[in-house]
Amino acid sequence: MLQIDDKIISFDLFGEAFVCDYQACKGVCCIEGDSGAPLEVGETQALQESYPAYEAYLSEESKAVLALRFSEKDTDGDLVTPLLENAACAYSFCDEQGNYHCAVEKAYLEGKILFRKPISCHLYSIRISI
Fold it and tell me: What is the pTM of this model?
């Protein structure tokens, strides 16, 4: 183990190569897990403020959920992205081929917003646990 500030890092992180292989996974990180993606302080506000830029990519179900809340607390009390009934992240959308994508990241890549997506989504499958 390695300590950086108040974080303990497993050496496994340095021995495993990880690169997102979207062709293999097809966006499973947007639908996998028992709660939404963890959110850092300020990310809920960024998601809310940039909503008009990515709203068009969302399903009606996602829009209905996000009309109520841009984040929620999971069973551990952590702030996370809200989930849809099928367990997909409310910020995700499914294309015609069944691949999941992040609506927020799509808007970012098109130059519509400066916020790319929550940092936990960038770092998936690495998680901070307390």
Answer: 0.82
Residues 72-76: contacts with CB within 8 Å, 24+ apart? 72/36, 74/34, 74/35, 74/36, 75/34, 75/35, 76/35
Indicate if the pLDDT at residue 61 is higher than 60.
Answer: yes
pLDDT at res. 3:
80
Q: How far is residue 109 CA from its own chain's centroid?
A: 15
pLDDT of residue 13 exceeding 90: no
The rounded distance, in Å, linking the Cα atoms of 1 and 29 is: 26
The pair phi, psi for residue 59, each rounded to 5°, is -75, 165
> Residue 71: which of 39, 49, 101 has the closest Cα?
39
CB atoms within 10 A of CB 24: 7
Residue 77's contacts (CB-CB under 8 Å, 6 or more residues apart) are none
Q: Hey, is 105 helix, strand or coil?
A: helix
Q: Say how many C-beta atoms besides its own lie within 10 A of residue 59's C-beta.
A: 15
More confident residue, 2 or 70: 70
Q: Give yes or no for a contact between 38 and 79, defined as CB atoms under 8 angstroms apart.
A: yes
